[in-house]
Each structure stands twice: as C-alpha cells, then as structure tokens.
Amino acid sequence: MKVHVLGGGPAGLYFSILLAKAKPDSRITVFERNRPDDTFGFGVVFSDETLGNLGDADAPSYAAIRERMAYWDAIDVHTWKPEHRVIRSGGHGFCGLGRQALLDLLQARACELGVELRFEADVSDVEALRADCDLLVAADGVNSLTRARYEDTFRPRIEYGHARYVWLGTPRTFEAFTFSFREDAAGVWQVHAYSFDDKTSTFIVECDDDTYARSGLADDDEAATIAHCQRLFSDELAGAPLVANRSRWLRFRTLHCERWSHENVVILGDAAHTAHFSVGSGTKMAMEDAIDLATAVTQEPDVPRALARYEEMRRPMISRVQRSAEQSQRWFEETRRHVKQAPERLVFSLLTRSNRVTHENLRLRDAAYVESVDRWFMKEQGLDATSAVVPPMFTPFTLRGLTLPNRVVVSPMCQYTAVDGVPGDWHLVHLGSRAIGGAGLVFTEMTDVSPEGRITPGCTGLYDDAQEAAWTRIVGFVHEHAKGRIALQLAHAGRKGSTKKPWDGYDETLDEGAWTTIGPSAIAWSEKCVAPREMTRADMVAVRDAFVASAKRAVRCGFDLLEVHCAHGYLLSSFLTPLSNQRTDEYGGTLARRARFPLEVVEAVRQVWDKPLAVRISATDWVPGGFDVEDAVTLSTWLKERGVDLIDVSAGQTSTDAQPVYGRAFQSPFAERVRTDVGIPTITVGNIWDHDRIDTLLVSGRADLVALARAHLADPYFTLHAAAELGVDVRWPKQYGPGVSMGRRMFADEG
Fold it and tell me: Measured between alpha carbons, how far is residue 145 from residues 29, 283, 288 in Å?
C-alpha cells in the first residue's frame, strides 16, 4: 500500500507510525514544507486519558513522550478583585510537552519504522500527489491546501471568535496550570500558562475584541505585545521575560467540515476540525484522529470503506469536543462579566465552563476545594457556613417573601388530559406526586386564559369557576402534604392553538371543532396549521383583560407564584420575534414596539398579583435575524422595571426554521447572561437530569433555580432520591417513613 502523508505535524507523523507498525509492507512518505526543527508555538497539553490512548496505540512513542513530560495536578486561578487571591484546585491530572520535543520523538519513531520523511517539500499540486498513491492523508493544518483543493466535497465552515489571543513563551515555570485575570484602562485580560518542561512555559494572553481595540496594539508588532504583556502580568512572570515565536494576535477559527474524505483523500487534525485552545484538545484530537484512521485502514478491505468507517468512528467524539470547546471559548470571550463575580464563583465557573467538569467531578478530584466552595455558597445564601455542608441544590431560596426549601423546579409540562379546560384526577396525581417528591417549586402545565387560548382541546385553563375549583383542590393538596410550593403558568397559545393532541397529530390544526386563532400577523405556525387572524387593538385589550381575570382567579386558588408565558412561540412570544410579528403599527418593528403588548399584559397582571411574578422567555429564536440573547437581556431589563421578580430562561420553539445547538444544560448560558447583565434571579432549563448538574449550575452562577422536565417524568421523587443519595436529611411524607431507611441503604450500596 502506497501512502502519501501531507503534513509532518503530530497528526501526520503519528498516523504514519501506527500504519507502518500495523502494515510494515506499506510505503509511507511524509511531505513537510518546513525544516525538521521549525515549529509554531511552544507547548502542548495531554490529559491522563489521552496518554492512556497513546500508550495503547504505540508503547515506544508513548514511553518517549512520558519521559519528556512536565506534570501538574493543580490549577491555580489568580483573581484581582477585590484583592489578589490565588485559588487552587487539585486532582486534574494534566501534563505538558514542548511541541518541538514532541515532533522530534515522533520523527525518530517514524524513521525507525521505515517511514520516509521529506522536509522542505512544498507540495503545490495536490491532485498529482493523490494520483500517485493509494491513500493521501492530508494533515496539513488549519490552512490546508488539500481542503481548499476539494472544497466542494469537504464543504468547510469557519466561525471566527470574538476575542484576540497571542501565543507566547517564558523561561518562568509554573507548578500548576495557571489562569490569571487583570484589568487596565483598555479592559480585562487573561492568561493561560503552563510548563511544558523544567525550564519553559507556554504563556497565552487573551482579551475580548473591544479590549484589544482600545489597547492600541498591532497584530504583528511582537515587541509592543511583549512589552505590554510583561508590564501587565509582571507579578505572574516574577521578573522572567516573555518570548515570541511568530507570535501574532489572532482570532480563533473553529473549523467544521461536512465531509472528511474525497475518493482516496482524507483530512485529519486541524485540516478537518479545530477546538478552542482553552480545552487543550488540538493535539489530542489530531493524534486520536490518527489512531482511528490507522485502525480503519488496517481493518477494512479497501480505502473507501476505511475512510467511511473512520468518519463514523470519529465524528461523535469530535462533535462533543467541539461543543465543549465552543462553550469554553464563549466563557473566555465574556470574561469581563465573570470577573464581576465573587472570586469563589469566578473560579468555579471557570473550572466548569465547558460542561465536561462538574461539581461531583471536582469533588472526586479535590474534596476540600469543593467543600470550601459549598460553604461559600451557604454563606452567600445567608446560612451558617460553619454547620454541616448543605449541597447547593438543597439551600433555600427566597423571593418576595416566598421561601422555597430547595432550588429544584418541576417544569411546566402539558398533559393534554383536561376536559373543557378543567384539570382532573390525572393532574392532581401528576402535580401532587412531584410536590411530595420533594421539589422546591412545582409548575402547573401551561394554563390558558381563554378557550381560544388553548393549544389543544385537552389543555387546562383558568377562566371559569369549574377550573378555579379544580385548581384550588390541587393547590390545597400541595400545601397540605408538601414542603415545596406550587406555581401557575398563564398563557395564550396564539397561532399555535386549535391543534390536535400530540399523539393524534403534532402541530396539526383540528379536523373538527377548530377555533379561529389570533396572532400579531397572519402567519401560520407551520404548514399543518391554519394561519391566525391578525389581532386588532380590541383583541389585545380582550387578551390583556383575560390574563388579569385569570390572575385574580389564581389569587383565590392560593398559588404561590405566577408566571406569564412569553416563550416558545405562543401569543406573547410571537409578538416579540420579528419572524412572526411583521406589523407596521406601534406594536411591530423595533424591539421596543414588538414588546409593547407583552409588557402591557405583564404590567396589568402585576397590578392584581402581589406575590412573586415570573416571566418565561425564549432567549433566542435560533434563527438568523430573529430574537436573540441581546434582545433577551433588553427585554428582561424592561420586565424587571415593571416588577417582575424572576426570569425563566428557555430558548427556541418560536420558528420551524430554528437550528438549535443542543448539549448538556445547553440553555444555561442564556440564563447566566440575563442573571449577570440584568441583575435578576433566573431559572434555567434544558437537558438537565441529575443533582450533580444542578449543583454545578447553581454554584457557577448560571441560574438561581433549576427546572427539570423529563427527569421528573421519569422519577416523580427525583429530589427525595437525590437527598438520599447525598445523605441530606429532608422531609419525606410521613406515610412513606418506613421506606426512608431502605432508600438510603440502597443508595449507600450503589455508592
């Protein structure tokens, strides 16, 4: 098998090593345009997990790498507000290696296995190179000529970050992976620093675009950059100089490709994908690409099947790493917000920024550090921090005189089981079981203010006496038997109304018994829905008054909290987004005009409701040109000015053209942004299923309350079970007392 490898970096060299080892009869040639000792950058980072993968793939190169590694177990974070502090957490298990040292040992191993290395080989005709081999492996970096040559096949997409960074080095060594934050007249700067041998460290300086613009630094002025950074981070450098190596201020480019192969050509490493340097995964991904590609080529009978298998094997992992990296990148791009937080929160938020590290994961690494953070959180909540540690999710939360026993919320979940809008026994059992299951706050399903405001004929309402009596019964049950409280979510379905129950036809207008729907504009929700009638001012007054009438009934029912639903494409939400509001009067156009009617409704409800008031919003439409997080911050500011106490931050479901980016707790950055910028408590929701994630979100300041839907569908006693697992003494229903000790033993046995 004749194989050409374009690019002599870690990806190309390591693939050559592994293939030469597995198929010694292969003729492998590596073409590298630089000299053997030319390299960009300073050190690379590996985790213990990655080292294990390298050890399994090739023991000799692994041993050489291990011999040259600089190891650290701790992360140090320097904070400067209100005073200089260094907060350390341990147990992280990382190591660094000089990039040139890595290349040297990989080159030596490749030569040992008979791989031909051609340096200063400037290949310009990729097609000719492809035609001359059975397999062309393109590991030619983020500026890949190969990817450009077959762009129509690979279909690359590059996203530019909103921060600038410069890659420097220093003879100063650090005993821990070090982050540091500084502020000057231009803005906030941060450092990522780590040792990669016994005398040298990588020293990356980063700032957001605005800070860089105000600094007056030029992209290619190394001398000015070094002088500025040495002055700014003189304490961290302790008198040591900074060293440049083709060091320019750059924006990070995140690369995605729809395909990684073309006939007998395959791209890997930075030629195929990139991940922000803050997760330390660039070299890791490149070398693990090489492992999987070599495995596929070795085990499959021909090149096409090998390349197909390679993509199948690698894409899920690369997607996960890129999602984590993008979250980490966004965190550093918004450092100016994070440095306003208490140092304890800043550090914990940094450590958990990518969603790969959690509260429990950190506790397993460094229990003392996590205990200190939990005690800080207790103190922040007004608890006695010298008493037994209380897990963050079990700390109480107080809002406008209402105190919840914990931070767990049962999300509103439509059951489509009401008759004429009246909640029945199903709702009593559904809501009652989750209330006695320990949640701090249980939301009703979306409850509508009029018959025409329902999504389906099976949706609940609060617009007549029978409904009011039924809800009063449910509220009474919760108050009598549960420690948590119950909230009502009020809504009007708007253009998403008059549809079948989901199991009869999702988002389809009723075949019989349909009613006329209304909306800001006559734009149908989907192809399966009838277009609504554009609302008149009289319609708006009627809807506003319906919300007020339902809110008055909610007072009589005894609900503890009321939420106005301005999310997910329902009536009030459809006014907010320009995708469904194309009015030309005072209720359309700018955000202020689009928000006019929803704000009128909220103001009117506030006048008759004196308990905690929440508003649910969709923080983004996930559609270019639609409602976005900047709009969400502005809207939340207006809501706060009108007496709203809590913002329930969701996202999407406002357009059938939405392209959401899913992941663990994927909506939490929106809740954090609203919480931080507006200074108002928030609820976060979305792909959250365990107590570990809840604690992580709370301590990091991403939200004040955490709502779970599917987790509560699966386990009505989620909170009580979490308490048993964590060893927290909480109130169980007295009727279930005999089962408490058994439950604790079960969790103890599992542990």
Answer: 18, 20, 22
**Does residue 374 lie in a domain region?**
no
Tell me the torsion sign for CA atoms 538, 540, 543, 544. negative
Strand-strand pairing, 177-183 and 188-195: antiparallel
| Mean pLDDT, the chain, whole residue set | 95
pTM of the model: 0.93
Q: Provide the residue range defining the domain that includes 524.
A: 409-709
How large is the average pLDDT for residues 407-436?
97
Backbone angles phi, psi at 487, to 5 degrees: -120, 150
Q: Are 323 and 663 in contact (CB under 8 A)?
A: yes
What is the sign, positive or negative, of the torsion defined by CA atoms of 212, 216, 219, 222?
negative
Same domain membership, residue 440 and residue 318: no
In the predicted model, is pLDDT for residue 740 greater than 90?
Answer: no
Given a cut of 60, whether residue 122 has pLDDT beyond it is yes
User: How many structural domains are present in the chain?
Assistant: 2
| % pLDDT > 90, the chain | 91
From residue 659, alpha-carbon distances to 327, 567, 619, 654 in Å are 17, 16, 14, 11
680-727 residue pLDDT tens: 999 999 999 999 999 999 999 999 999 999 999 999 999 999 999 998
Q: Rounded to whole angstroms, how far apart are CA atoms 252 and 161?
A: 5
Indicate the pLDDT class of residue 735, thresholds 50, 70 and 90. Answer: confident
Q: What integer pLDDT is reported at residue 220 of this predicted model?
A: 84
> How many Å apart are CA 724 and CA 391, to the nearest integer?
12
Q: What is the mean pLDDT of residues 423-436?
A: 98
Q: Is residue 60 part of a domain?
A: yes
Q: Which CATH number fits the domain that encloses residue 25?
A: 3.50.50.60
Residues ≥6 apart with Cβ < 8 Å to 128? none
Beta bridge partners of 4: 29, 136
- CATH no. for residue 455? 3.20.20.70
User: Would 749 be classed as within a structural domain?
Assistant: no
Out of 332, 349, 366, pick the residue that ends a domain. Answer: 332
Q: Which of 206, 201, 203 is nearest to 217 (CA)?
A: 206
User: What Cα–Cα distance (Å) separates residue 282 from each residue in 50, 51, 219, 366, 586?
Assistant: 12, 14, 23, 26, 51
- Range with lowest mean pLDDT among 15-29, 404-418, 631-645, 724-738: 724-738
Residue 662's pLDDT is 87
> 490: exposed, middle or buried (C-beta count within 10 Å: 0-12, 13-18, 19+)?
buried
Say if 531 falls within a structural domain: yes
What's the pLDDT at 453? 98
In this structure, the dihedral spanned by the alpha carbons of residues 574, 575, 577 and 582, taken in order and rounded to 10 degrees, is: 110
Concerning whether 14 is annotated as a catalytic residue, the answer is: no
Q: What tens digit of pLDDT does each residue of 544-575 get?
A: 999 999 999 999 999 999 999 999 999 999 99
Structure-block tokens of residue 735: 């009727």
Contact 422, 471 (CB under 8 A): no
- E strand spans, 185-328: 188-195, 201-208, 253-257, 261-262, 265-267
**Eight-state DSSP code of residue 452:** G
- What distance in Å separates the CA atoms of residue 108 and residue 61, rounded to the nearest whole number? 9
* Domain final residue, candidates 264, 299, 332: 332
Distance CA 382, CA 185 (A): 35
Residue ranges of the alpha helices (H) in 37-82?
Answer: 48-57, 59-68
The whole-angstrom separation of Cα 450 and Cα 448 is 6
What's the pLDDT band for 456 if we cut at 50, 70, 90?
very high
Residue 366: phi, psi to the nearest 5? -150, 90
Q: What are phi and psi of 748, to 5 degrees?
A: -65, -40
Which residue of the set 165, 310, 416, 570 is catalytic?
A: 570
